[in-house]
Amino acid sequence: MATHKEFSDPCAAHQLMLTRRRFFGLSAQSMGAGLGMLGLQSILGRDALAGPSALDNSGAGLGGPVGPHFKPKAKRVIYMHMEGAPSQLDLFDYKPGLRARYNQDFPESIRQGQRLTTMTSGQARFPIAPSVFKFSRYENNQDGVWLSDAIPHTATLAKEMCLVRSVHTEAINHEPAITFFQTGTQQPGRASFGSWMSYGLGSSNANLPTFVVMISQGLGNMQALAARFWGSGFLSSEHQGCKLRSGGDPVLYLNNPAGVSREDRRRMLDFVGELNEKEYQRSMDPEVRARIAQSEMAFRMQMSVPELTDFSNEDEKTLEMYGKDVNKPGSFASNCLMARRLAERGVRFIQLYMRGWDQHGNLPGDLRKQTGAVDQPQAALVKDLKRRGLLDDTLVIWSGEFGRTVYSQGALTKTNYGRDHHPRCFSMWMAGGGINPGVVHGETDDFSYNIVKDPVSVHDLHATMLHCLGFNHERLSYKHQGRDMRLTDVFGKVQKPLLA
Amino acid sequence: MKAFSPLFIFLLSAGAAALLHAQDPQPENGPEKQLRYGRDIRPILSDKCFRCHGPDPSSRKEELRLDQRAFAIADRDGLFAIVPGKPEESELWRRVSSLDPDEVMPPAESHKKTLDEVELNTIRTWIEQGAPYEEHWSFSQPQKNPLPQNKNQTWPANEIDHFILAELEGVGLSPSLKAKPETLVRRIFFDLTGLPPTVEEYEQFLADDSPRAFENLVDKLLTQEPYVSRYAERMATPWLDAARYADTNGIHMDAGRQMWKWRDWMLEAFRDGKPYDQFLTEQIAGDLLPDATLAQQVASGFHRNHVITDEGGAIDAEYLVEYSVDRVSTTGEVFLGLTLGCARCHDHKFDPVTQEDFYSLFAYFNSIEEKGLYSQNQDTKRAFIPFIKVPSMEQSSQLDTYSAELSQAKEELSIPNAEDAKAFEAFLSTAPESLGVHWAKFKTTDAKSTMKSTLMILEDQSVLASGENPAKDDHIITLQTDETDLRLLLFEAIPDPSFPNGRVGRADNGNAVLSQFSAEVISIADPEKKKSLNFTWAWADHEQPDADFQVVNILDADIARGWAIQGHQISGGRTALLLADEAFGYPGGTEIRITLSYQSIYSQHTLGRVRITPGVISDTGLNALPVADSTWYATWPYKPKEKYSGYEEIFGPEADATIDFTKKYPPDDYSWVYRIELKDDQVNSVLPVGEVVSFAGKRLFVPSARNLEISLGSDDGVQVFLDGEIVFENRVDRGAAADQDKLMLTLSPGVHTLVLKVVNTGGVGGYYWKSLPPIEEFSGNLVWSLTPKETRDRGANNLSTRLSEDWRKMHSPVYREKVALAENLGKEIKALEASIPLSMVMRERKERRPTYVLMRGEYDAPDEDRPVERNVPSALGSLPEGAPDNRLGLANWMTADDNPLVARVFVNRIWEMVFGNGIVATSRDFGLQGAWPSHPELLDWLAVDFRENGWDIKHLVKQIVTSQTYQQSSAIRPEASAKDAGNRLLSSYPRRRLGAEEIRDQALYLSGLLVEQFGGPSVKPYQPEGLWKEVAMPQSNTRNFMRGNGDELWRRSLYTYWKRASPPPSLLTMDAPTREFCTISRGITNTPLQALVLWNDVQFVEAARVLAQQTLATKNYSLAGLFLQCTGRRPNETEAVRLQEFLTAFTKRFTELPEDAEKLLQVGESMLPEGADYPVLAAWTMLANALLSLDEVISRT
């Protein structure tokens, strides 16, 4: 009955419920979880956020995270998005039979009237382009997996990764497809996956943002990114992703102006804190206390972020693992190492974007450039997490926003071709927390055009990922426009075979 | 939850009723208080039951509906869902309270949680009370009920207070004391102008002891300048969010758009007090008003503010649907307080809006002259169709003057001159001979398509295409001739009645794009002898002007660039001349095999009837042919290491002998791109600003060796490279103008690459280029004197007339003078027109698109059995008698007296703006899932009163802010918050943080930096480097952020350029939305990143520095004075001590390390006063930085 004591004590109720956002946040939960202990525990019992004020962690005023529905396997996510859509045919979905069909017309019976982008819809014929890449067999926990020689390092993860060859999406163009992958719908306006995590799990580091985004510029044809891909949509804006940048301030406005030292800032903060505390005494507005706490966190971030981005305490061997670009800020290698460091520090959602996979032409050359940049670092990341015992509770995701066509866009030669967008099937992999290691899931037809076994929709993936994080995707919701909004909208099914 | 104890229920029913309305707190209602269906019951039923037992028949289970009482209490084979007064006999109660998992409702598979104790208790009590239903409050017309009676008769100042006080008294609370005058004056200044008062304004108010002092101040702020303009700027911000206004398209290239005229229209509407019914009507249907003014058309741009796409592969039809869906949803949220979006895919689960209703509204918005997929273009000031030009008064009258002068000049030109005419005829008859031009006899012997079009040879030797018209095609045409020493090919495209509109192109619109022209020649006598022809020069009678469509593009294999002939807009034939680099033709006859490639991205853009004639030209002729050129291409910006080092550094583009569009130059991987703005004979001033190097380049096609004189200008210095070799340079600091330098290019025959390297050492950049060929040259249209008369007469754009004009320009001085005059006027008109702002508007298509219900809301799944007509949702009334069947009719319905929603929704939003929360907390949703109003009668009273007062927004605002309710202190009283959780009853003024724009504007204003200018194009103040680039496409025209200069840095925040993919970062941190969709109310968060903005963002540090400067420059300045300026109050004793300590400590610190002071003071572009005491100024800067981040300074208190 402690709960009721809390509520019947006006001061406690005041502390807990007064601010508008706190109030709404609380009531949203109490509607869901009832007025039982669960709701309150999740308000009060968030992990690891100590601070000078009782209110500090929720300083943002949302009443704290929802908390998981059941014991999670993963506590955090590292999500590598390959923007532009890497070709499944040249990396993961081995189709040796296509070699015999070089330059043959793609059978209409397979295409089944699938809509085409307007980039190839005017094309006179659709010649089949077998992959120029060699594939080799690697041992996994089933009967082995065939992977492309463009990703030799990633291939050594065969026993760790769960390769899904049967993902499908609804969109055929980058913008809507990425929006769909990140937010569960093609139209702008919903909350991104990372924001849901921030809302659902809250922070586990008092000195760093909960949801961090890093961008690597690609080597090939780059598509646009937009703030909405890591936006919080209808969720409170505190849940939006915070970009960790490779140039200038790593976090926007992090560094003091020239001539202002850390001691100066401390002195100013003491002064401001004191005056703010007086303002609190006058106004009794808990937001003032929250602001004091948030400023203290900002001050701590000014220390913790530079420490985070300073690789000097990494040993040579580790740096070597990630490859030659590891000390080049903004490179995928550097961002992979940063991802591990963020994971170590308890950041919940680490989103990496690698741009430049949109290979409509010159695919063999451009793909090799891109894989050259990502292959070693991403494999190193998984191995590094593993040897530090972090892989067990880190969900690692690697995917593009759709797949690519088996037929060539533009001219086809023995050594060169391009591939258009293909939403009906593509490959992605996951590893770590809660994921079934060393397995291959799903199958496509001889042309990697249609799925013939175990289709997995993007909603299914979201549901499955949320499951790893301890959430029933149908219950992690937020009331907006009179609806209980979910990452999975009204769809999604947890894919049991993908789970450990 | 299943095992709740009786004690628990007791506790709940006794004491926890207040918690019951946790989401929408109400005064504590004891158990005796009557429950209300709409407030207490329906939210539970709606959340838990209506999904299967509600209004949507398709998902209804067991034929049971609980949303209407008649069904709920009906006898269902002896079972009753509800027996009024008897919960134990009610199946509803039995099922929701059941502990049996197979019985309990809602069932597990619904994924709805079962009812909790509070909800159960409420349902039970309600059934006991007889289970009364009521109509949803917001769907019936608001009424002005008598004012409630209050115990305290003295407190209320106006009607609002009666309602507020009645609720407070109902829970035993008294209102808070009146706020201190200094608090009040700061509050009202922020609420009405978005800026704080000055110290003088404080004092003025404090000195006015008349009882009407506050009202007088309100009147002044709402009616007098400069306040009333500031009021408009303050009111505009939430409306910009609601209208999803931005300066870029949002998707893919996130291209820039011109839309600020709409923003300015809205500002003026607020400033001038446009009544809300007109405000609404003009935004929904301004274009449809009788004799719509320019301003009314601009207003209709409200529904063009949504995101649009230019993503290459996107499907037009899909996005057309998305745009109209956005309009329906936005209309719902902004004006009706309804979340209509749900009904796109299915009947609304909660509100009485069916899928048909949705598409009936959709039908108002889906017949606009718009595109789904827009083209890409480098022009950031583009508007996307439909749009209008919006000239100012001065621009209009200037334009009229110029146009009158031009038509007079043209008239004079058209007066024939017999002498000229004779001389011209003589010229024509001798021209071919004088240049040794002779057209060969030939026969077209074969014509084939590589695809499936049918090619037929006509008698005049032309080739006619018919039958299929494939998306892409190659036509191979074979000629035979006995002549030799050939150099020329005359290419004619001939109109034919069998093509669309009798044009030359076969595409539906009559246009065509030739992507490549190639030919080989074969000896008929000895077929072993053959060669490919290499064409190095081409000339056309017309090129489509809106992109890189020049005829020289057909000479190479690059199919991305071709010759477009603008057949969709211009009739007549087309003519081109091509020159081979060496003579061809074999003795004994030659076969010429020509391939016309139509491989561009423009589907079916083929030419339908062509004839190709070989020809001979003498060396004299070659010398008389003008140099042809490509369009200009550009690549920039490149950063030199130092200001002047750009002249020495090699960046790449200058060293290459060709313009290779696929090549990427380090460090940023820039490539050559086409830029439409760059032209010969004008000062091209779009080059990047600052210390940067830019390249502009083009290809030259030279018929014979010659020298070509060039007139040049540049900003600043320039180097000219020909085929990778430097041929000219001028290292100079200057602004660009015409004719600053002369240079002579020595050209060999063939194709050359010319690259201008412009080294900008600061400020704007630009260049000027004009070639000055000798007068004897057959430049311009004189070339056509070499072709047969029949060809000329058929040529595009009155070719013969153009030829005669060009000749007269060349050879008749009087004529030349007049032409120059007309040309100048033309240029003036063009420049003026280019400076006229554009604005995107709504404009109806001539033919209405049929509308069907879209199955699952999908664009490609119209349900042809369910066509719909334009209409309003039937549950919300019907269209007024005689309302037009268009958006104007829709607006008439919205503003009609009996519309239940529109006035309430707007009044509520103004209330929300003033108090942070609406009377309906869910200000975007007045539907069944929305929150119950905290003061329903007040809302209704205000809504009716608003309408009765002519929808006068200022009246409404004044009413609210002159209430006692508004003037209460914000100090929280613990005893009040227990009874007024969340301050929903307004027992005090709701203290809260300022909005993003207000925080920045305040800092600029206090420091004196703010530049107040009402309206105008958006500006680009400080922002960290690289933000745009890291997310943008390489080709995006909003990839490179070019910071504004001077005043642009310090305008009010609502004028900040809004790039949707990367919105202004500090505003975003302070909770501004991305503006990709309608946002009705912003949240307010409190995060560490916000502290960092206030501490370190250049614009805040600079404001602190300038605030410190201003303070130190004032007579009798003091710490207390600065404190007063920032907070609106004088510091108390302890604060005064701390201020002094702070200043002393920092003065000491900066005196010890003056170089730190100097570094700090360098921040920002504004002037640093000469002779300032740096350590002192730095200390004051730190103090100002601290004060500007104080909670009370960034809050409304």
Could you say how many structural domains of chain A there are in total? 1
Low-confidence stretches of chain B: 1-32
Taking all residues together, what is the mean pLDDT of chain B? Answer: 92
* CATH classification, class level of chain A: Alpha Beta
Query: Which oligomeric state applies?
Result: heterodimer
What is the average per-residue confidence, as pLDDT of chain A, rounded to a whole number?
85
Explain what this protein looks like in three dimensions.
The complex is a heterodimer of chains A (500) and B (1197). Helix content of chain A is 34%, strand content 15%. Chain A is of the alpha/beta class and 500 residues long. In chain A, strand 16 (477-480) and strand 17 (483-486) form a beta hairpin. In chain A, helix 13 runs parallel beside helix 14. The model of chain A is unreliable at 1-63 (pLDDT under 50). With 1197 residues, chain B is of the alpha+beta class. In chain B, the strands form 9 sheets. In chain B, strands 4, 6, 7, 9, 13, 15 and 17 form a 7-stranded antiparallel β-sheet that branches. In chain B, strands 18, 19, 20, 22, 24, 25 and 27 form a 7-stranded antiparallel β-sheet that branches. In chain B, strands 5-8-16-11-12 form a 5-stranded antiparallel β-sheet, with no helix packed on it. In chain B, helix 3 (37-48) crosses helix 7 (117-128), helix 29 (996-1007) runs parallel beside helix 33 and helix 32 packs across helix 33. The longest helix of chain B has 23 residues, at 813-835. Residues 1-32 of chain B have low confidence and may be disordered. At the A-B interface, helix 1, helix 2, helix 3, helix 10 and helix 11 of A face helix 28, strand 32, helix 31, helix 32 and helix 35 of B.
Would you spell out the secondary-structure blueprint of this structure?
The complex is a heterodimer of chains A (500) and B (1197).
Chain A lengths: L1 H7 L1 H8 L2 H14 L3 H8 L31 E7 L5 H4 L16 H4 L23 E4 L6 E4 L3 H4 L6 E7 L5 H10 L9 H9 L9 E6 L25 E2 L18 H22 L2 H24 L6 H7 L9 H13 L4 E6 L8 H25 L6 E6 L3 E6 L10 E4 L3 E7 L6 E3 L1 E2 L6 E3 L2 E2 H11 L8 E4 L2 E4 L14
Parallel strand pairs in A: 1-7, 1-8, 4-12, 4-15, 5-6, 5-7
Antiparallel strand pairs in A: 2-3, 4-11, 8-11, 9-10, 13-14, 16-17
Helix pairs in contact in A: 3-4, 10-11, 13-14
Chain B lengths: L5 H10 L1 H4 L16 H12 L1 H4 L15 H4 L2 E2 L2 E2 L10 H6 L20 H12 L30 H12 L10 H13 L5 H9 L5 H11 L3 H16 L17 H12 L4 H10 L8 H6 L16 H21 L18 H11 L21 E3 L3 H22 L3 H17 L3 E2 L3 E7 L3 E5 L5 E5 L5 E9 L4 E8 L19 E2 L1 E8 L6 E3 L2 E6 L22 E2 L9 E11 L5 E9 L10 E8 L2 H6 L3 E2 L3 E6 L34 E2 L9 E4 L3 E12 L3 E10 L1 E6 L2 E6 L10 E7 L2 E12 L3 E8 L16 H6 L4 H13 L1 H23 L2 E3 L10 E4 L7 E7 L18 H9 L6 H14 L20 H13 L4 H9 L12 H6 L12 E2 L2 H12 L19 H5 L33 H5 L18 H9 L1 H16 L5 H9 L5 H20 L1 H8 L12 H14 L7 E2 L1
Antiparallel strand pairs in B: 1-2, 3-29, 4-17, 5-8, 6-7, 7-17, 8-16, 9-15, 9-17, 10-14, 11-12, 11-16, 13-15, 18-22, 19-20, 19-22, 21-28, 22-27, 23-26, 23-28, 24-25, 24-27, 30-31, 32-33
